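# nightly structure sweep
# worker-07 picked up a monomer target from the shared queue
# config: single-sequence mode, recycle default, output format = structure tokens
# input follows
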Amino acid sequence: MHIGLSKTGTTAFQGFLATNSARLGRHGVGVTKVLRGPRRIQLAAAFAPSGSKLSLSTGVQTDAAGAELRTRLRMKLRREASSDQIAVISCEQLSSMVRRPTDLKELADVLHEIYDLVSVLAVVRRGDYWLPSTYAEAVLAGYGAPMDGHSWPVVGTRSTIAS
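# output follows
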């Protein structure tokens, strides 16, 4: 299980897994297809508190809908699991959206039902590297925020600092 906080290369790692899934498969490493691409967010949505922004974005609006998604994912993961392969699951949203001990335990229980051994690789980044990168990305995406009395207007996809 790979979880990476934002801005830790998670997307690049997931791209590597997708690009090299056939080669990894020949070496006994299976990249979980059930949670590939945009579907990978479902794992976090299934175990995040209902009503959270993440769960709502995937259509999980109630505890019952979350339980139904957990059941579907459990069945799909079980069908895909192979005793002769290591399964790799990558979901960065787990690090930020699934935090309550009861939710984490339920996720662990589901994974231990399916897999003999579960290892978690969590990738973090120093805050002094993470913050400027995150802020620059937000500005380029069109988000502006006042900072020390200065405004950060957004023009197209580039920002200018008004002093």
